[in-house]
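Example record

The entry below shows one chain as it appears in the dataset: sequence first, then structure tokens.
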Amino acid sequence: MLKGAEKGVGHRSAEDIKWQETKDFVTKRDKGMCVLCRILTSYELGLFIRSRPNFPGKLEHAHIDSVGNHVEKTYDVNNVVLLCHAHHERMDSMLNPLTGYPMKRSDHEKWWERIKKGAGIVS
């Protein structure tokens, strides 16, 4: 079992050096900003801000492929991006990251492709 994953998905230990190194790399790569907020057009950002009155939120390290289904990708820097809390929550819940309304799986996949491209992750 991966150290840090012992407490359950999403609860990696603060003592997990490999996770801390992954987060440090991703934070630097993503310029310390939510990748999605950074790549949105001004129109899209306006839609998002209007739908989320408590924006901005804290930054979080989000897994593209769930570690619940892909534990081997826990520390893969090509599977982790920096997102604000609102975008992380919406992407994990299959909600449109701009509006918060439910979206189809195909739209969800398109958003992840756009996020990966914005982070410089090659598929």
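Notes for this example: The longest helix spans residues 105-118. The mean pLDDT is 89.
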